[in-house]
Amino acid sequence: MKNEKHKVKHVLAVYEEAFNESELTKMNEDSLLDKVIAGYRVKSIWSGDVLEVEAYPYWKIPQEKRVKRDKNSSKAQERLNEKNRQKHVARLINTNFRDYRDLYMTYTYSDKYVPEDYEQAKRDMTNLVRRMKRWLKKQEKYEDFELKYIYSTEHTRNGEKVRAHHHMVTNFPDREVAEELWNKGRANSKRLKADDLGFTKLGEYLVKEKGPKTAKGYTPSRNLKQPKVTVSDTKLTRRRAAKIAKEEIGAQEIFEKLYKNYQFKQMDVSFSDYVSGAYLYVRMKRIDSPIKNRLNRGGDKDGEKAPH
To answer: How many domains would you assign to the chain?
Structure first.
């Protein structure tokens, strides 16, 4: 049985770009219960209060030849890479930073200090982080403080050069000092404020910059925690996934039963013209009691652990 399981070929990385049809056609509907589908893999990504669930088919035999490749494939892959980069940054922010407590900083330049190039702009941020760490060490109550941050440098937009500026999310404990330590121009700070999807929109905005030197597009501190990821091949059957995709049963009820203490927020369903099944992408948010919320905002506890 164990050997048989290992024969199942999961190749979503190859086909992810193929699940790009939002309309359920007759052909897509007929493919939902295709016998070539071995089952549905459910990937759960726990990032702070936000839970993402990706459910997708895995097949009994390799499906590479069924995926259409054309001159637009490289562009499709580029879009997919961009989307995954935005997801990753949003997950880092949701995992590591706190609502109403941590900061979103914007740093801009006065005419005198506009950097000559992207490399100089990056050095300016490196120096800012050093000043932040030096200041913390000089404060007795913060001498053991663990500074966390993630920042991006914007210098082009849609291929056109723009005035360089920086965006940073940080747990730096003093808002006024975080502004004062920037010595190149103006600084603006805001307290983080989550919505139904945590800080997901902020994460997407942070890496909107596109350019030849910003393939990664962001710089994180090394001490950031990674989101927790679990994978299961038994949470969702092929038949139930098909019913969800066809809206024959309510997705909200199903996923809220699967994930206690999480509230269903939205779901995207995608189909493919080349491979069988459907791709379900669900986003949920943790429901906490007021007492837990006050503890998490006021202290250093991580709060309730993600269920297994």
So the answer is: 2
